[in-house]
Design brief:
The protein has about 600 residues and is of the alpha+beta class. Among the domains are: about 215-295, Regulator of K+ conductance, C-terminal domain (Alpha-Beta Plaits, 2-Layer Sandwich); about 310-390, Alpha-Beta Plaits (2-Layer Sandwich), CATH 3.30.70. About 55% of the residues lie in helices and about 10% in strands. It contains 27 helices and ten strands. The protein has helices spanning about 5-20, 25-40, 45-50, 55-70, 75-85, 90-110, 110-130, 135-145, 155-165, 180-200, 210, 235-240, 240-245, 280, 325-330, 330-335, 370-380, 400-410, 415-420, 425-435, 450-470, 475-485, 490-505, 510-525, 530-545, 555-560, 565-590, and strands at about 220-225, 245-255, 255-260, 270-275, 290, 310-315, 335-345, 345-350, 365-370, 380-385. Strand 2 and strand 3 (about 255-260) form a beta hairpin. Helix 9 (about 155-165) runs parallel beside helix 21 (about 450-470). The two termini are about 35 Å apart.
Length: about 600
């Protein structure tokens, strides 16, 4: 089998694996490199060369710089100002949220911006008495649009910037993508404010958490009769979870709520608030010493005390909970929280929660002490869907976080000002050193801020680009496109690559889609005698604009909290995609001529 055939077959296999999401994207990248090396397409030095690319250092350093802004609560401060300006005006609030999200994403990346603003926007929706669904999708779309405006706005831009150097092109400058990106972002925001906002559903915001999750029929009140064998036992000794498949959520004694601890002893006439299936609750009738209170009415304050509250947390992408069950992680003991329900894209799980395998984006309705969750929020395992207290933020270090980012931006523009160019990787590292020197970022948490999965994927796809170039597979595929589309003109070919990239970003990651298409697009331009940079830029923009489905990470983050349905994204996002497609195809050839 020829090297070209092997490379194309491995590409197809990788695309299938990317789309199926059966394996993490970085593992797929590693398998792709192993396949290329074992088949003899690349030698081992070529296979691992991507890991030595300076773009890996640059992206890793940017994760740390962004971490400095997060840990000092800068975005949290901005979010609090929004309500003071907009008040209860839905239109103004939406405009401000989209605008601030777009500007923030241009330096913080769209997924990071969405994650940081998510609890703030939910809090703003509650204050303004606006359904969260009216604000969360515009926020995510604003962040995606803003991320296309600068080199560091998305990891995709950085990845493509590193990849095009293989084809003799200069990497993108910091603001090379800004002019067109800003125009597209502005048009996209105008569309959302005039048309998109009218198509958004109005869900959530009016109900209590117990009503939102419909747990009323799964929670009941049991009266402990004097003759019950539970009297005198601690909750730990009673072990109702194992004996009766019931989860004790609270105790009411003499009309007062009692703090829940494993050592709390059950007394006669105690009222136990329990959660379980209807079958298990009804089975209590056959248990001597317990009686169901038929007039019980469930509300949030029944399950809350001075120390214990109900709140929602989201499982984040890098959380160790992903792929695990609550039982396997011993969640209640390790996190000191009780999970009452799990919501996944509109589907609520209440029965047999301990056996549900958790996924990125799942929202858990939990009962517990708010302070116990903050360490996990700070570490990025969970996202509290309301504002975290300022005590966990290093607000006194905010000036150093800004100084480090300012140092990075200033040095990255040194060539324009002084004519002397400081490599981007060096600019980033100097900013990181400033964060460490001022203890804005502690050395112990340095590497936890870096998304190594993304770095591995980019390194592997750079090596794959080497294989495409070495075997001539990129020229072969480019020739097929040239032969079939050349007669339609360069604009049609450019539009074809843009549409192909948008299509691929739906089932696979934006970075992977861009790095797969760029080699073919660049070679097609070369065969047609056109400017390869025009095509590379078009693919870069296309990879950033993923609005049609909620599979983009920024959209996944708002999917469940906004109570959206899949078709909500299709309706609103398809029109937005068509608009940015048309604008991009018009503007890109003007700013980067064929």
């Amino acid at each position: 089998m020829s090297p070209i055939a092997i490379t194309i077959i491995l590409l197809i296999v990788a695309l299938i694996l990317f789309g199926s999401e059966k394996l993490p994207v970085d593992i797929v990248g590693i398998l792709l490199v192993i396949g290329l090396v074992m088949s003899g397409v690349l030698n081992i030095q070529e296979g691992v060369a991507g890991f030595g690319n300076d773009i890996i250092i640059t992206i890793g350093g940017l994760f740390i710089l962004v971490g400095g802004l997060i840990k000092t609560g800068l975005v949290d401060l901005i979010g609090r100002r929004l309500y003071q300006i907009a008040g209860d005006n839905e239109f103004i609030l939406t405009a401000l949220i989209m605008g601030v999200a777009a500007v923030s994403a241009s330096v913080l990346k769209n997924t990071t911006t969405t994650a940081m603003f998510l609890p703030i926007v939910i809090g703003l929706a509650n204050k303004a008495k606006i359904a969260p669904s009216k604000l969360l999708m515009p926020m995510a779309f604003g962040a995606i649009l803003g991320g296309s405006c600068t080199l560091i706005g998305t990891s995709t831009n950085l990845a493509v910037s590193g990849a095009i150097k293989r084809y003799g092109m200069e990497p993108y400058s910091m603001f090379e993508l800004t002019a067109v990106g800003a125009i597209i972002a502005l048009i996209g925001i105008v569309y959302m404010l005039l048309i998109g906002i009218r198509m958004l559903p109005r869900r959530g915001g009016e109900e209590s958490l117990t009503e939102q999750y419909a747990i009323r029929e799964y929670v009941s009140e049991l009266l402990v009769l004097p003759e019950s064998n539970l009297v005198g036992k601690t909750l730990g000794e009673a072990n109702l979870n194992s004996e009766l498949d019931l989860n004790v959520l609270g105790i009411i004694r003499d009309k007062e709520k009692i703090p829940l601890t494993a050592k709390e002893r059950i007394r006669s006439r105690d009222l136990l608030i329990v959660e379980g299936t209807i079958t298990d609750i009804l089975a209590v009738k056959e248990t001597v010493g317990l009686e169901i209170k038929p007039e019980f009415f469930l509300s949030d304050n029944i399950l809350e005390t001075d120390e214990v509250e109900l709140f929602e947390v989201m499982v984040m992408r890098e959380s160790p909970l992903v792929g695990q069950t609550l039982k396997a992680t011993n969640f209640r003991q390790n996190y000191n929280l009780t999970v009452l329900a799990i919501n996944r894209h509109g589907e609520t799980f209440i029965n047999k929660l301990s056996h549900v395998t958790l996924r990125f984006g799942d929202v858990l309705l939990v009962q517990g002490n708010r302070k116990t969750i903050e360490p996990y929020v700070v570490e990025g395992e969970l996202l509290l869907l309301e504002e975290v207290s300022a005590s966990s933020m290093r607000t006194e270090k905010r000036k150093w976080a800004l100084a480090a980012f300012g140092l990075f931006l200033t040095l990255s523009l040194s060539k324009i000002v002084t004519g002397f160019e400081v490599p981007l990787a060096v600019c980033v590292l100097l900013g990181v050193l400033l964060l460490l020197a001022t203890k804005t970022i502690r050395y112990s948490e340095l590497y936890s801020l870096i998304d190594f999965r993304l770095l591995v994927l980019i390194a592997c796809m750079i090596s794959f680009g080497t294989a495409m170039e070495k075997t001539g597979a990129d020229i072969y595929l480019a020739g097929l496109i040239r032969d079939n589309f050349e007669h339609f003109g360069p604009t049609a070919v450019l539009a074809g690559f843009f549409a192909l990239t948008v299509f691929l970003t739906q089932p696979m990651s934006n970075q992977a889609a861009a790095l797969v298409v760029v080699p073919v697009a660049v070679q097609t331009a070369a065969l047609l005698g056109l400017n390869p940079r025009t095509f590379a830029v078009a693919v870069t923009y296309a990879a950033s604009f993923s609005f049609i489905t909620p599979l983009e990470p920024a959209c996944i983050l708002v999917y469940t909290p906004g109570r959206y349905r899949f078709m909500d994204f299709v309706k609103v996002g398809t029109i937005l995609t068509i608009i940015v497609f048309i604008v991009s195809i018009i503007l890109v050839p003007i700013f980067w001529r064929f």
